[in-house]
Amino acid sequence: MNWAEILLQCLKETDTSLISYVPDISIDQATSRMENDPFFHVVSATREEEAVGIAVGAYAVGRNSAVFMQSSGFGNTLNAIGSLCIPTRTPIPLFINLRGELGEFNIAQVAMGRGTRPILEVLGLPHYTLTQVEGMDRVVKGAIKLCHSSRQPVAICMNSLLHGGKLA
Fold first, then answer.
1. What is the pTM of this model?
2. Do residues 27 and 21 touch, judged by C-beta distance below 8 A?
3. Above 60 in pLDDT, residue 158?
4. Would the N or C end of the chain have less CB density within 10 A of its end CB?
5. Looking at the 3D structure of the chain, how many domains does it have?
6. Is 69 helix (H, G, I), strand (E, B) or coil?
7. How far apart are CA 163 and CA 24, in angstroms?
């Protein structure tokens, strides 16, 4: 199985069926599969904080959800995470496609790519970075389990070593 297939299997095994996301070509292998799988209800958002709000609403009515975004948009979520998810103890797995690392061609992506993990640390949120398919299922399922048992967001960061990245 490739990384996207493993990711979908992990989401299914953790009963995470509502996916909100901001479209990104690097994670399209996963999100397009989700859109074609009846297990998932996939909602495309226009901004990352909107995707977080959708996921929080789904959780409030009893549906496990996750958010997919790019690191450049992660900054848009900070108020939603800091003033909604954290104080209300809402467990939302955040799948963040890290830009600004190996092979990056767009200088505008570098700052938030570098800043994403330190910002997660300042917020006190656990984060794990996926760089290879081997062992990926253990990390993803473990992170989602931690997310729900601790009732707080957890970030699963994905970089170009995992999915190939964007091409210029």
1. 0.94
2. yes
3. yes
4. C
5. 1
6. strand
7. 12
